[in-house]
């Protein structure tokens, strides 16, 4: 299992090094995931080897959300005082982001001459 974790972390490290070293606009973990995908395609035995480790990691993925839950519980008084404003800001910013995406899509479609 340790070797499998080293393989996963080495791919992430390689992605981070590539992203920062080459100044790429893609996050390092995404590049690392692409490298891992390429390695799994080139060596199917590697996929079989790391499958139990990755399954165990995915089974316990919810543990990553514990710090966020603790933060929410720790600031319940703030949520009680400003809950309505926080929900309104969350909803409005979500709608604004979606609308911005729509307008950018329409602008790009118009600039590229894509038909409706």
UniProtKB/TrEMBL annotation:
Its main location: membrane. Signal peptide: none annotated. It is a multi-pass membrane protein. Keywords: Cell membrane, Membrane, Transmembrane, Transmembrane helix. InterPro entries: LrgA/CidA. The chain crosses the membrane at residues 29-46, 58-76, 82-109. GO terms for cellular component: plasma membrane. It is found in: Cell membrane. PANTHER family: HOLIN-LIKE PROTEIN CIDA, HOLIN-LIKE PROTEIN CIDA-RELATED. This is CidA/LrgA family protein. It comes from Limimaricola cinnabarinus. The lineage of its organism: Bacteria, Pseudomonadati, Pseudomonadota, Alphaproteobacteria, Rhodobacterales.
């Amino acid at each position: 299992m340790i070797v499998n974790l080293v393989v996963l972390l080495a791919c992430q490290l390689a992605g981070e090094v590539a992203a920062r070293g080459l100044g790429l606009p893609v996050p390092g973990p995404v590049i690392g995931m692409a490298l891992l995908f390429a390695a799994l395609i080139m060596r199917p035995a590697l996929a079989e080897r790391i499958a139990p480790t990755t399954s165990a990691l995915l089974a316990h993925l919810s543990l990553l959300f514990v710090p966020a839950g603790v933060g929410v519980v720790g600031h319940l008084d703030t949520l009680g005082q400003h809950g309505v404003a926080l929900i309104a800001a969350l909803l409005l910013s979500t709608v604004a982001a979606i609308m911005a995406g729509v307008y950018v899509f329409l602008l790009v479609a118009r600039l590229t001459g894509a038909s409706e």
